[in-house]
Amino acid sequence: MQNYRRPGATQTTSVWVNDHLRNRLRDGELVLLETCTDAMTTTGTIRQGADLKSKIVRVMIEHAAILSEKQANWIPLNKAN
Predict the structure, then answer these.
(1) Can you tell me the distance from the alpha carbon of 56 to that of 63, in angstroms, rounded to the nearest whole number?
(2) Where are the domains of the chain?
(3) Among 24, 6, 23, 26, residue whose Cα is nearest residue 14
(4) The pLDDT of residue 30
(5) pTM
(6) DSSP conformation letters of 5-23
(7) Beta carbons within 8 Å of 18's beta carbon, 6+ residues apart
(8) First to last CA, the chain
(9) Distance CA 29, CA 20 (A)
(10) Which of 14, 16, 38, 50 is the 20 to 30 A CA-CA neighbour of 25?
(11) C-beta separation of 7 from 15 below 8 A
(12) C-alpha–C-alpha distance, residues 62 and 68, integer Å
């Protein structure tokens, strides 16, 4: 989370998230933070732990979470939305 709190000038996504977090907090909005530390993938009937070291797998899980949040009428603060 440190990169969002004090992003470097070249960390454009972190700067973007920092600006939005600050604006929402300043306006008194509720900000929830969710962090995925473990995930499962299912192929057919086979379930296995997701390899979170893989960027492709992390992006897939992130996009699934964003879609899930949108269906629950939450607005995720994420550049992918």
Answers:
(1) 11
(2) 1-31, 32-81
(3) 6
(4) 85
(5) 0.53
(6) HS--TT-HHHHHHHHHHHH
(7) 4, 5, 7
(8) 20
(9) 11
(10) 38
(11) yes
(12) 10
Q: pLDDT tens, position by position, for the chain (81 residues)?
A: 777 788 888 888 888 888 888 998 999 988 877 777 888 888 899 999 999 899 898 888 888 887 877 777 776 665 544
Decide if 41 contacts 48 (C-beta within 8 A): yes
**Rounded-to-integer distance, Cα 2 and Cα 77, Å:** 17
pLDDT at 76: 65
Report d(CA 80, CA 13) in Å as an integer: 10
Residue located via tokens 């960027």: 55
Instruction: Name 46's bridge partners.
Output: 43
Q: Specify the residue for token string 């192929």.
A: 43
Give the CA count within 13 Å in the CB-facing half-sphere of 11.
13
User: What is the residue whose two structure tokens read 């004090």?
Assistant: 6
Determine the pLDDT at residue 81: 42
Tokens of 40: 């499962």
